[in-house]
Amino acid sequence: MRGGCRHRAASFVGRWRAAVNRKAILSPAARPGADDERSTARTVLRGTGLLVALGVLLLMVVLSTWIGTKDTSLGQVWSAITGDDGSYATGVIRELRLPRTLMGLAVGAALGVAGAVMQAMTRNPLADPGLLGVNAGASAAVVLGIGVFGLGTFTSLVWAAFAGAGASAVLVYVLGASGRAGPTPVRLALAGAAVSAALGGLIGGLTVFNAATFEYMRFWMVGSLAGQDPEVLRQLLPFVLTGLALALLMARSLNALALGEELGRALGTGVARTRLAAVVTVTLLCGAATAAAGPIGFVGLVVPLVARWLTGPDLRWVLPYSLVLAPILLLASDIVGRVVMTGGELEVGAVTALVGAPVFIAMVRRRKEISL
Fold first, then answer.
1. Mapped to the 3 state alphabet, what secondary structure does 194-231 carry?
2. Is residue 15 packed enough to be buried (19+ CB in 10 Å), middle (13-18) or exposed (0-12)?
3. What domains, with CATH codes, occur in the chain?
4. Most confident of 121-135, 190-204, 256-270
5. Mean pLDDT taken over the chain
6. Dist. CA 109–CA 142, nearest whole Å
7. For residues 90 and 82, what is the distance between their CA atoms, to the nearest angstrom?
8. CA 355 to CA 360: how far, in whole Å?
9. 32, 219, 338, 348: which sits with the fewest CB atoms below 10 Å from its CB?
10. What single-letter DSSP state applies at residue 129?
11. Overall pTM > 0.85
């Protein structure tokens, strides 16, 4: 009797396994090439999304050259871009709005990509490009340039800010790399916080006792694209392009680094070399952007979060999306700042803070979407 029961049970288990195997064989997920089909579909979807984002960016460029305190038409915008007829509207578009728009494109792309690289390098989805002390270094250099060395021209202050950003990033990396552990994400973050705090004290002391420094820093610290000299963009553009190229070339290495140091080494990635290249990249991008437009916040923090939510953790897609989405946010904020106040403008840094803070809080509350 017992043998018959065991035989029937074994027969039932055998039939159940056979049915499961047939279902697995007939399932679309188990068919040969199903994974390839899903991967292709995801690639097409991501590519389509990137093309849509590029279309929105083109729309922002048109609106940025069209909208302002001076009423102009799209025909005047096109005429100003294609040639100079000597009219007042053409002068406004060519000398004010177009350089401002191009500066917004460069600064936005630099901040967005710098934020994505910083978050991948530190394996912290809430990291900010200013974590390496770049913003504090640039601000301290501007304060020293005005209050101590008597710098007065805009170009000289821009280069002082860029030099200060680079020096601060180098100091943070040297401090973070000291010791046997090397430049770990935690050590770099702690070194950046310490350097930023020290430089913040220096900035506060000099601005209190120097009226000229205080007046300049009062506007520069907010962050603005207005009144930018096209020559400044031409001087800083090589640094921005170099940083963008380095970031895109490091996408695979940053993907491996985001998996952890040991797994990254097992995949053949030079961890120390990748971190050093990432620090150089962030310094070039964030230093140039901060020197040109001031320490604009939330762009480098929020945009990579949104890009990761749209594409997943693959840096080969996060970086291009950040490259496009960040200028969209910056130009849209600049347009809002022009029209929201009657008879004046709201600085773009203030608008990005007002827009970025709620988005940042919403993304943090949904922890799944910000995971690396």
1. HHHHHHHHHHHHHHHHCHHHHHHHHHHCCCCCCCCCHH
2. exposed
3. 52-370 (1.10.3470.10)
4. 190-204
5. 82
6. 23
7. 10
8. 9
9. 32
10. G
11. no
